[in-house]
Automatic annotation (TrEMBL), chain B:
This is ABC transporter permease. The chain crosses the membrane at residues 56-76, 88-105, 111-131, 140-158, 192-210, 240-260, 318-337. Its main location: membrane. Signal peptide: none annotated. It comes from Streptomyces orinoci (Streptoverticillium orinoci). The keyword Transmembrane helix applies. The lineage of its organism: Bacteria, Bacillati, Actinomycetota, Actinomycetes, Kitasatosporales. The keyword Amino-acid biosynthesis does not apply. It is a multi-pass membrane protein. It is found in: Cell membrane. InterPro entries: ABC_transp_permease. Keywords: Cell membrane, Membrane, Transmembrane, Transmembrane helix.
């Protein structure tokens, strides 16, 4: 990923957000700042002094620390052991280190307990350990790579409180994200990167998510709204009395789905809201045939499929956009055209009789790449080398190419940049016009409300509430997701709903997920309150960087 | 597009070349350390290995090695470690020898024996597959234990008065009738086993099955990602059993060149350990049908020339050392090249996209 003509100035004691689509070059830039990659051109200045960073160790020595998107923690060690690992020389590995951890934790309100095993911690706590690890090594500038991608809204709020804490202690935070609502609520300054170069800066108080998104994508931004109804009265998928139990890791048998009943008609998008871990994944797997239900029936287009094999269901017209595309949707080390065959090996054009038709599959992959705007130099590259958005576009293209009757879309735009997001929405809408039935599961309540014709809320393995997407607000939906409300949700007109949820702003406030790891501290100030601009400081540190990654000829070999 | 293909080819060749060069350097150092001249050793090996009778010997030796490697590779391709090819081929050969020795089969003797061997091999491997899918027993454990069980079973039956006869110091199953002797390719020296034809057919079948059929795609899918395979509609359990059966059936062929071409009986001196050699060759050939063929020939060459080194005053173990070093080098070199390749590719994809982007950016910049 080439970066070129990057200009970035970060003031000391601020939270500086770096936005851009997936694949825009944010991560490359961060790797350069953290010494993991060397720039071909340009300079980096730290506190006015020009530095060259050759390795992360260099960066750490100069007070730059990085919290990676994927945590780098050893599960079977305690928090203390994880923190001191590799930094044993600083404060030893015993009580001195423990005291130091306590001190840092208290100073920034991180609430880290040094003696618990990391494997017992939730995602949010792990992230705090990562932050503490960086602070322990003396970082004054923190780089956080997509820190909110793994968090639920409440945890995001807590994280932002932590960041404000850090800021008020004079630390500098560089915050990478493509979630614009979050960026606007926490950042003091925003720099937007597009296609490897900085395209603009913004002041959060004067910017709307829409403007920011347009800056990121470089074009007008569509919204997930679909209002003209295409719902017919022909049932496509009917689920009746579905019950499923599963054995959890302790060997106990739990009922994960109970009494599930719903019907999706042709041309209807049924949105399923719910805090993750309340049975949505299991429901999808039961419909896909990856889990065998204990009771109930599943009917697709008039044919019962309750106990049919997954392959038969796929052939019968179920398209599947899995929640975790790396685990369930792709062969990462296989070329794109083999990924095009995946899941549809028995169908044209991938095979004839029992034999693969590699030529036709390749040709059809070219078509998908073209029609679905998968940005790739070719179809022989591995799926792993594409960015998340492009991987997802390939999956959507593949599933749509077999003209499904029912599309199961689990978090179809998760980890996908805004540009690809809009395209995926368009495709779902278009297919719906042609009579597709869609089961949509999403943590993005705006997406859910915007795309769905019908909304159901899942809580602890049951469908507890339903709502009309035309009137419901994310807040009202959120309260049902926590089990606080059930039955038919009516929109109450009492004052104006808090916060304007446009574009990317996607927090479901006030929801209290029981199953998800929670921060011990309460979150009083929501990041949704208008972004505070902390008083400007006199001392300024600046990083200025130019870096040209245009290589001669482009090809290495 | 063409560019990437070329890169792929270069990367594909880089690994074995790197491995061989590294193995060459390391073994030279080892031979040097024993106080001998490594280059003289190579000279001896090349001279002796290229003699006509050596070539015949190498091909005959490589045939069962290759079949064994194929059997192992079927498992490897779906992430199953069938370490029990050794037991499977021995028990398969034993029962084939019993069937051929005791029944008068006339002209169908050879096909019947081959089928018996494949079925017995498949059953023996299938037990491990069944244990894995029903009880979650790792196939590594079950297949290696089945090796011992197989050996004991053969030991029980291979006694005078049970299924075998005594001839001097040797105990073996009755000699096969002439109709059960496989054809040979006569050469100026010794003949080449006709079974080499079967080995080639097996290699082509392996390539076709895995690379060109739906079944093969499913099998490879399971090997690359079990979760993705399941979501795509492959029954992983059924695939485990099926591939173990195929692997075992292939293993059943391993003993056939010896049984039908040389010994004409199964005795206490029937060769053992070919199953383990197969693992090494499958690794060396990266599960590729041609790669494994080259690997099998290289192994045969090393086996052949190792004996000659002994006459020249080199330690006989040196060949074992060379073989070990080659495997290590190959495994390491392939992993390095694979990672490097992925990295290059990712960078390349990024670059090409950036190039595309900067073109369209220029258009935008005007606005």
């Amino acid at each position: 990923m080439a970066n070129h003509d990057i200009h970035l100035t970060v003031r000391k004691g601020t939270v500086h957000a770096l936005c851009g689509e997936n694949g825009a070059g944010k991560s490359t830039l961060m790797k350069i700042l953290y010494g993991m990659q060397k720039p071909d051109e340009g300079t980096i200045k730290l506190d006015g002094e020009q530095v060259s960073l050759h390795s992360p160790a260099d960066a750490i020595a100069r007070g730059i620390g990085m919290v990676h998107q994927h945590f780098m923690l050893a599960d079977n060690l305690t928090v203390l052991e994880n923190v001191v690992l590799g930094a044993e020389k600083l404060y030893g590995i015993g009580n001195k280190a423990r005291a130091k951890i306590k001190e840092i934790s208290d100073a920034y309100g991180l609430g880290v307990r040094p003696d618990v095993l990391v494997e017992d911690l939730g995602v949010a706590d792990r992230q705090r350990v990562e932050i503490l690890k960086v602070l322990y090594r003396g970082a004054r500038t923190l780089i956080l790579d997509e820190p909110t991608a793994v968090l639920v809204p409440q945890e995001v709020d807590a994280l932002f409180d932590n960041l404000r804490e850090l800021k008020s202690e004079g630390l500098t935070v560089i915050f990478i994200s493509h979630k614009l609502g979050e960026v606007l609520s926490v950042a003091d300054d925003i720099t937007v990167i597009r296609r490897g170069t900085t395209v603009g800066t913004a002041v959060p108080s004067e910017t709307t998510p829409k403007q920011l998104a347009e800056l990121m994508v470089g074009e007008e931004l569509p919204s997930p709204e679909t209002r003209e109804s295409t719902v017919t009265d022909v049932p496509m998928l009917t689920v009746e009395g579905l019950r499923l139990s599963a054995t959890d890791s302790d060997g106990a048998v739990r009922t994960v789905l109970d009494g599930i009943e719903f019907t999706i008609h042709k041309g209807e998008v049924l949105g399923l809201a719910g805090v993750e871990g309340n049975g949505q994944a299991e429901l999808v797997e039961a419909i896909m045939g990856m889990r065998d239900p204990d009771a109930g029936t599943i009917t697709l287009d008039g044919a019962e499929i309750t106990h049919l094999a997954t392959r038969k269901r796929r052939e019968g017209g179920i398209g599947y956009i899995p929640e975790d595309r790396h685990r369930h949707g792709l062969l990462l080390e296989a070329p794109l055209w083999e990924n095009r065959i995946l899941g549809h090996v028995t169908e044209a054009p991938n095979s004839k009789g029992g034999l693969l038709d590699n030529k036709a599959a390749r040709a059809d992959t070219e078509r998908i790449v073209r029609e679905y705007d998968v940005r790739t130099p070719g179809i022989e590259v591995t799926a792993a080398s594409l960015s998340g958005g492009n991987q997802q576009k390939l999956i959507v293209g593949r599933e749509m190419s077999h003209h499904p009757k029912l599309l199961i879309a689990a978090h179809p735009t998760r980890g996908v940049d805004v540009g690809a997001q809009a395209q995926i929405w368009d495709q779902i809408r278009e297919a719906r016009r042609e009579g597709l039935a869609v089961l949509l599961i999403s943590a993005d309540l705006d997406e859910l409300i915007g795309l769905s014709d019908t909304l159901r809320v899942m809580f602890r393995g049951r469908l507890v509430a339903d709502a009309d997407p035309a009137t419901i607000t994310p807040e009202e939906l959120g309260s049902a997701m926590t089990g606080a409300a059930s039955g038919h949700l009516e929109h109450h007109e009492e004052g104006t709903p808090p916060g304007a949820d446009e574009g990317e702003g996607k927090n479901s406030p006030e929801s209290e997920p029981e199953s998800s790891p929670k921060a011990e501290k309460d979150q009083k100030n929501s990041p949704r309150n208008s972004p505070k601009n902390s008083p400007k400081r006199e001392k300024k540190s600046s990083k200025n960087q130019k870096n040209s990654g245009k290589r001669e000829g482009g090809d290495e070999k | 597009m063409k560019k990437i293909d070329k890169n792929k080819l270069i990367l594909g060749l880089a690994a074995p070349v790197l491995a061989i060069v590294a193995a060459f350097i390391i073994t030279s150092a080892i031979i040097g350390a024993t106080g001998k001249d490594p280059f003289h050793a190579y000279q001896v090996m090349v001279d002796f290995g290229s003699k006509a009778d050596s070539q015949v010997w190498i091909i005959n030796k490589a045939t069962p090695y290759y079949l064994s490697a194929l059997a192992v590779a079927v498992g490897f391709r779906m992430n199953l470690f069938n370490i029990g090819v050794d037991g499977q081929y021995r028990i398969a050969a034993f029962f084939a020898a019993v069937v051929g020795g005791y029944f008068t089969l006339g002209p169908v003797a050879i096909p019947v024996m081959i089928i018996v061997a494949m079925v017995v091999g498949a059953i023996w491997a299938g037990i491990a597959g069944l244990l894995k899918t029903t009880r979650g027993v790792s196939e590594v454990i079950s297949t290696i234990m089945l090796n011992s069980i197989g050996a004991s079973l053969i030991g029980y039956f291979l006694q005078d008065g049970r299924l075998a006869k005594k001839e001097g110091n040797l105990i073996h199953t009755p000699y096969l009738p002439g109709s059960a002797h496989f054809f040979e390719f006569p050469t100026q020296t010794k003949p080449i086993y006709g079974f080499v034809v079967i080995a080639v057919i097996a290699g082509v079948a392996y390539w076709f099955l895995l690379g060109r059929t739906r079944f093969g795609f499913d099998l490879r899918t399971v090997g690359q990602s079990e979760s993705a395979a399941q979501a795509s509609g492959v029954s992983v359990k059924r695939m485990v059993i099926t591939s173990m059966l195929i692997s075992g059936a292939m293993a059943g062929l391993v003993g056939m060149p010896t049984l039908l071409g040389v010994s004409y009986n199964y005795g206490t001196d029937f060769p053992t350990g070919i199953g383990f050699t197969g693992i090494a060759i499958a690794l060396l050939g990266r599960n590729h049908p041609i790669g494994m063929a080259l690997g099998a020939l290289l192994w045969g060459f090393l086996d052949r020339t190792g004996t000659q080194l002994e006459f020249e005053g080199y330690a006989q173990e040196i060949v074992g050392v060379i073989q070990g070093v080659i495997i290590l080098c190959v495994v390491i070199a392939y992993e390095l090249v694979r990672r490097y390749g992925l990295k290059i590719q990712q960078r390349k994809v990024g670059e090409e996209l950036a190039a595309q982007a900067s073109k369209s950016d220029k258009a935008e910049a005007a606005a």
